[in-house]
Here is the input.
Amino acid sequence: MVYDLLIIGAGLSGLFAGCLAARRGKQALILARGLGGTHVGTGTIDVLSELTSLDKRQTTLDHPYGLAGSHALLAALDELKTICAEAGYPLHGDLNANFRLPTAAGATRQTCLAPETMIAGDLSRPQPFTLADLPGFRDFNANFAIVNLQPSVNSYQLSVIGLPIPHAPTHRDAYATDLAHLFDRADYREQLIEVWRPLLTHAPKRIGLPAILGLDHAVEAKRHLDSALGIELFEIPVLPPSVPGMRLFDILRNDFQARGGRIIIGPTVSGRIENKRATVTADANGRKREYEAEAIILATGGFLHGGLTGEFGGAIRESVFNLPVAAPSTRADWTSEVFLGPHPFAKFGVQVNKQLQPIGKDGKPVASNLRAVGSLLAGADRLSEGSRQGIELATAYRAIELL
Here is the structure.
């Protein structure tokens, strides 16, 4: 079968591009070696830490936002919100102002779109809050987070409240996914309400807890507990696997498949370019199969997710088609002297033209049917900018628009 569109990568940009294509009637296939970055992300959409500087980035073609265009970012955010709302998992926010949300380490982070389960934790709100300590849950230390958060909250004293988890699901330390499965169950939430209610009598009405409110029914769980206990719960993302990220993955995958899209996760994917046309081979334990498509979107991510690899000898390469990667030839120029500061390697990636087609050293497209999106693109330090998900969505939207 020849597909209209073949997408390599099942992270946020790949899945979102698949949803957009399927919603526009395209026959689309997603091939991926693994699950992508959603399972290690926060489940929120970071567009830029300082939204006031967005215009500057959207007016230069050296930055992925400039290549995608401002209309693509706006449209992408709107369509993602529509997809999530239809799945019963509304995302809140817009480009007018970021939410200021707490991290599990007690820092603050700026994000544009956040699920309903997180927004009550906005540090811009004046109401006091407390953080829940869940005995037996090792991936969130409320006391540690409070110490670091307090300097960001001057108008009241932060506190910690112990909230036990009855009938712990395992005989080992529980992971977020273990607890999320419990919170999905209405009968289990009734048990929690009975145990927690007397402990909350004198507690602040906003309570933060690790992101465990359910995988399939998180909003229902939050509304149930909020209503029964007279509080506002908010989630704080913790160590992977990320429950909010898994929710986003499930929503996009389900939306894609419900509209006829096909997704295959597991094979090693390699590409070939002949006569300016790209084709793909998927190798599943020695069983190789070639795929052709009218268009191919490369959404394999950067160094973190395997789209870019660094070799011992110092070469950097793109992992599927071995496309040229923009990087200084001298390794000393890859990093800065400040360990936690911005580093040049963060901007390494595949260079593309205005059509998002990867280009060679001659500045011409290497293949007429190939486009690259998301964290694979050169030109943005996504971590320092706080722009990772915004770039993934905007460039995926633009790539589909160009089909």
About this structure: The chain has a mean pLDDT of 94. The longest strand covers residues 277-284. The CA atoms of residues 328 and 334 lie 7 Å apart.
